[in-house]
Every structure is written in C-alpha cells, then in structure tokens.
Design brief:
- By secondary structure, the chain is of the alpha/beta class.
- It has a domain at about 95-120 and about 225-400: 3-Layer(aba) Sandwich (Rossmann fold).
- It is built from 16 helices and 13 strands.
- The strands form three sheets. It has a six-stranded mixed β-sheet, sandwiched between helices.
- It binds ligand F0G.
- Ligand F0G binds near residues 249, 255, 313 and 389.
Length: about 425
C-alpha cells in the first residue's frame, strides 16, 4: 500500500464482483480485461455483492472517519490492496451556498468542489482506481483521449505509479492549465488534428490492437467505480441524508452515472434512503443527451461538430451516453442545455457570491439549475447539490477574457487614491 492511504483496517471483500453488460446482460469475471461487451458492444457496469458489503460494513467507523475515496474501500473492486496508487484524492469540500441559492431561487444549495482534488478535477477519483487496475493487470503503459482533465489526472497517477502515459488531445482545443499539467507530469502528448470524439475513437482502436496499453477513458468500467465516491461523500457530508437533486455537467457522460451508482449502493446497503433526482447539463452546442431526454428517445443522436466555450464538455458522441440516460430516467431526474453566455454568468456568480473558482464546464451545472428553476421544472423548496467538476486555474485564458482586467497606474500613492474612487 502506498504511503498516505487511508490506514485503518477495512473490510476484505472476497471476490464477489463481476462485469455485467448494461445492454444484453452478459456476465464476465472481473479478471477479464474487456472495455465493452464482446457479445454486443454494450457498456459494462461492475456489480459488487452489496449483501456481503452490507453484512461486513463497520458503520461506526464509516461515520467517524472524514471522507476520502479510500474510506469507501469496501465498495471498490480492487483485488490487491498492495497495488493501490493514491494521491489522497476525494474528501473535497461541500460548501453550503446561501447567497447563490438566493440568486438561483432554491431553498438550500450546496456545491461539491471537485476543484480541490490533487490535479484539480473529479477525474482523480477515477484514476486512483483505474491506474491501480492497470497495475493489477500487470500493464506498464496507460492511455486516454481527453478534453484536458482526464489527461492531466492520468499523467499524474501514471507518474506516481511509474507507468508510461500516452494521451491524445484535440489540437488547439485543450485549456492551458490542463495541457501544462500533462506536460509537467511528462506524459507523451499527441495532439491530433481533429476533435475529442475522433481522438477517443483513435485511442480505443490503439488499445484494442495494442493489448499492452491500458485504456483509461471512462469507457473503462473501473474508472466510474472511483467516481461513485462523489455520491458517497455527498451523503456522508449531509449527515447520511441524500439531497433531493444532484446537478452534474455532462460531457462523455460517465460521471452522472457514477454519482448515481454511489447513491444507489449506499441505499442498497441501508446507509441512506432514496436516490436524488440526477440532473444532467450540457452546453447548447453539444447536447445529444439533453435532446434524447426531452424527446423521449431510447438512443441519443450524436452531434457532428460540437462547439462551446466549456471545452471540457465539447463532446458530440458521449461514449457513456447510454449510462447517463439510464441514471437520469431511473432517478426521475431531467436534463437541460445552457448557452455560453449563461455558463459565463454562472461562473462569475459562483466566484463573486461564494468565492468558488471553477472552469466553464463546472459552471454549467449552476446555469442549468437556474434555468430549470425559472422554468418551474425544479421546485424552489428543494435541497440541491451542484457538482463543481474542475478548478478555475484549468482555463486561465477564458478567465482573463471574461473578467475585469487590471488597471495600470504610475507607482504613486496619489494615482492609487485617484483610481480607487469613492
Ligand atoms: N466537467 C469537467 C471539468 C470535465 O473535465 C468533464 C469531462 C466533465 C465535466 C464531464 O464529465 O465526461 O464524465 O460527463 N472531461 C473529460 C476529459 C471528457 O477528457 O477531461 P463526463
């Protein structure tokens, strides 16, 4: 076990985990290295034996320890604890935001600040599990396509594990902070002349043909297992009472499903009761899932040339879209799209009213909530949690563009007084 990991003894779950296709229901052993179902191409979910977890759960300890991803070890499909790679992810603040709640128009609003993770986004929760699985499978190279955050996170965890890291990025479309991180962690960065959807198709082919390279996009079934800890932590931080609604920005669409799974599993083992209405937000220029929800479609129609200021969610063909549709429908949630202007306004409100700095994609959750309240689709007396997925420093260029610039004055006291005004 790596230093810094949650150290108290934890429940050993034997081997009660399996891969199960969400489309055709085929089941496979957890040791099999599939990304999608070999029978029908469907996405996998990981089933853990929740009865066994419930039986062995040390509820007193769980309630006494502060939140972190590995506090919930019992729910993680890891076979060998000695392989765990952690940068002490999770345990992020859940801020109660009364000033923002008044502006948005809901009774109680909390923001889960995922920008406080080691590389500044929620991706670290998935990568601690994903990179650990790479070691369990005995692989030495990991890869992903990314709009930026996934690559920053994978590069950091690969560095910690001593693995080679290859990332495919859409050239010229990744925010500066994210690119700088992947460079600093020494990933092999390949900038493709195309968009994220094309980069993902290429890296999937690469990892299918080169079996020595482990794919760590969220089509990998293990990554959402770490991300479900967002749901665990929210319930934990709200005194084991899930909120009425959780609002999540959607890009490739694994996170909303992962959070749903967290609430589902806590409910199943009797730690909490009920599942919040999962509410997904996309940008107007990249909203295939919103369209499918609004039109009641079973399958979503990909968007050809996605466009938005929120580059993190500039995705037209979300690989985990089918999971997002399931999470939203099963929890009686909804989905909405927001414009770039609405995103920027929400980003500013979050910063000015609450001191929370986020990148544009994260602000889409606040913008979407505001829109849904105005439409009457969200009740004003709800208790809502918005997921602020990434840190403001991820996209400094956008911040400089939309914020009040510094004013240059001579180095004199008089000039400062004059500038200050009243
Ligand atoms: N917010 C941020 C800041 C993101 O970076 C992403 C996804 C999302 C929201 C959407 O999450 O894909 O699970 O629906 N970023 C990916 C990346 C695509 O490559 O960093 P999702």
């Amino acid at each position: 076990m790596t230093e810094g990991i949650y150290q108290t003894p934890r429940i050993k779950i034997g081997n009660p985990v399996r891969l199960e296709c969400i489309e055709c229901g085929s089941k496979f052993k957890i040791h099999e290295r599939f990304y999608t179902c070999p029978k029908c191409g469907g996405l996998f979910e990981i089933k853990i034996d929740l009865d066994e977890v419930a039986e062995k759960l040390d509820r007193r300890r769980l309630k006494a320890e502060p939140p972190s991803v590995w506090k919930y070890r019992a729910f993680m499909p890891i076979l060998d604890d000695s392989k765990i790679i952690t940068l002490q992810e999770g345990g992020t603040p859940l801020y109660r935001c009364d000033r923002l709640a008044r502006e948005v128009g809901v009774r109680e609003l909390h923001v889960k600040y995922e920008g406080a993770n080691p590389t500044g986004s929620f991706k670290d929760r998935g990568m601690t599990v994903g990179v650990t699985k790479a070691l369990e499978f005995g692989l030495r190279t990991v890869a992903c396509a990314s709009t930026g955050n996934t690559s920053a996170s994978l590069a950091a965890y690969a560095a910690k594990a001593g693995l080679r890291c290859v990332v495919l990025l859409p050239e010229g479309k990744v925010a500066a902070g994210k690119l700088a991180q992947a460079m600093m962690y020494d990933a092999q960065i390949i900038a493709i002349e195309g968009n994220f959807d094309q980069a993902l198709a290429l890296v999937r082919r690469l990892c299918d043909e080169r079996r020595d390279i482990y794919l760590l996009n969220s089509v990998n079934p293990f990554r959402p297992q770490g991300q479900k800890s967002i749901g665990f932590e929210i319930a934990d931080q709200l005194g084991w009472e899930p909120p009425d609604r959780v609002v999540v920005p959607m890009g490739n669409c694994a996170n909303i499903w992962a959070i749903y799974k967290g609430f589902f599993e806590f409910d199943a083992v009797g730690l909490t009761k009920g599942i919040p209405k999962m509410t997904g937000i996309q940008a107007e220029g990249a909203k295939p899932i919103v369209d499918a929800i609004k039109r009641g479609l079973k399958k979503f129609v990909p968007v050809k040339n996605p466009e938005t200021i929120a580059t993190a969610i500039r995705i037209g063909n979300p690989v985990s879209g089918p999971k997002a549709l399931r999470a939203i429908r099963a929890s009686k949630g909804t989905a909405e799209a927001v414009s770039d202007e609405e995103i920027i306004e929400a980003q500013k409100s979050l910063a000015k009213l609450e001191g929370i700095g986020v990148e544009p994609a994260s602000a889409s959750a606040i913008a979407g909530l505001k829109k849904l309240v105005e439409q009457g689709a969200v009740e004003r007396d709800e208790r809502v949690v918005c997921i602020a997925t990434g840190n403001v420093l991820k996209d400094p260029e956008e911040v400089m563009r939309i914020s009040r610039p510094p004013v240059k004055v001579p180095a004199s006291y008089e000039a400062i007084i004059k500038q200050l005004g009243k």
